[in-house]
Design a protein that fits this description.
- The structure holds 2 protein chains of 2 kinds.
- Chain A contains 8 helices and no strands.
- By secondary structure, chain A is mainly α.
- Chain A is globular.
- Helices cover 82% and strands 0% of the residues of chain B.
- In chain B, helix 4 runs antiparallel to helix 6.
- The relative contact order of chain B is 0.08.
- Classes of the chains: A mainly alpha, B mainly alpha.
- At the A-B interface, helix 1, helix 2, helix 3, helix 5 and helix 6 of A face helix 1, helix 2, helix 4 and helix 6 of B.
């Protein structure tokens, strides 16, 4: 049990970037991100003993992180489907601490204005995951991945234009 | 904007400040695991205590009115329903908590949707609608008979008692139906949210 816990912690330390990035695209507020980080760690720890394929640890971490985030959004009713892009809110001051410059802040704003599924699609695309990996994480067919990415990218670019970046 | 530019932009997002050491991660895990354990224990202990108090009171009342067989039958039925509700409530709560997230997003969403749909359709989800007003009515009867110090069979002979019971039972029924309607609405909203997400994949 102790060896398993140590192994889990080593993996978690190595792959924690995934957790931070998923929480960053789903939650604007720092305290929400800290809460979800704890919840994801707990969910990962719970399902770690059942993890059979240790070659696809990254995909497993992405799936658990995205599912836990979606679950939290549902619980907290943070879901917002928007037809138009809202102005940058004051709530982004927390986010400013996590991102270093205006450019990445603009990109994060544009991602936050995507719907919850496109947030995952675009995150996996920006993380340069292969179509196979994206298909495995999202549970969709490989042929579907390209369509989803193109759609999400198109909306992201429109959002960026609206925010006066990337004309 | 070129696609590569998006990826380059993404690489400027700095998460280094959020990185944690192995020790910090361990502390976060311990804290979360402990808080979940406390929450589970609190729910378990509170439900068990409430049920225990109800059953003890029913037993005491029954012993004090040992001559009234209808009153004793009423209390036994109440006690059994309380026990069944306790076991059923705890087991379904644990079943919901066990839901695993280590699956591809679409499969996980499908499982959640099926779980909610099944629980909506199942007899178990409809039972509280029958049980709660029933428990409420039997409890009101039991309390009324005990404190008015009358025989259970006499209750329906007294006009005042019947009127009080009817008013009490009607109010109780409305409150319980209102609460369950609210719960059902919340479940439907959750289901609609998950189906919307699933439809987008």
């Amino acid at each position: 049990m102790k060896t398993e816990n140590n192994e889990f912690l080593k993996i978690l330390t190595k792959y924690q970037g995934i957790l931070h990035k998923v929480s960053l695209v789903y939650f604007r507020n720092k305290s929400d991100r800290e809460d979800i980080l704890q919840e994801i760690i707990y969910q990962l720890w719970k399902s770690f003993p059942k993890l059979k394929n240790k070659d696809s640890i990254g995909s497993w971490i992405y799936s658990v992180s995205i599912n836990t985030s979606l679950s939290r959004i549902k619980k907290k009713s943070l879901v917002e489907y928007r037809d138009t892009v809202p102005e940058i809110s004051d709530g982004l001051s927390d986010l400013n601490k996590a991102v270093k410059d205006d450019i990445s802040e603009h990109l994060l704003n544009a991602i936050h204005n995507l719907d919850d599924i496109n947030k995952s699609v675009i995150l996996l695309y920006l993380e340069e995951k292969s179509y196979d990996e994206i298909a495995a994480i999202l549970g969709v067919s490989k042929s579907n991945v390209g369509v989803r990415i193109n759609r999400a990218k198109k909306i992201l670019k429109e959002n960026l234009k609206y925010l006066n970046y990337g004309k | 904007m070129e696609n590569n530019e998006l990826i380059k932009l993404w690489k400027t997002v700095d998460i280094s400040k959020e990185q944690k050491t192995e020790k910090e991660l361990m502390l976060l895990l311990k804290f979360k695991a402990r808080s979940i354990l406390y929450k589970h224990s609190a729910i378990l202990i509170a439900s068990a205590l409430i049920s225990l108090v109800i059953i003890t009171l029913l037993i005491i009342a029954s012993f004090k009115r040992f001559d009234d067989s209808l009153f004793i039958i009423n209390n036994i039925v109440l006690g059994i329903i309380t026990l069944i509700s306790l076991i059923f409530g705890i087991s379904s709560w644990y079943r919901l908590q066990k839901s695993a997230t280590d699956k591809p997003v679409k499969i996980w969403l499908k499982e959640k949707i099926t779980l909610l749909k099944n629980s909506e359709k199942s007899l178990a989800s409809k039972l509280p609608f029958i049980f709660i007003p029933f428990i409420y009515f039997l409890t009101v009867l039991s309390i009324h008979v005990y404190f008015e110090n009358i025989q259970f069979a006499d209750i329906f002979k007294d006009e005042e008692s019947v009127f009080g019971l009817l008013v009490g039972a009607t109010v109780g029924l409305f409150v319980s139906f209102y609460v369950f309607k609210k719960i059902k609405k919340q479940v439907s909203e959750n289901l609609a949210f998950l189906e919307k997400l699933y439809g987008r994949l």
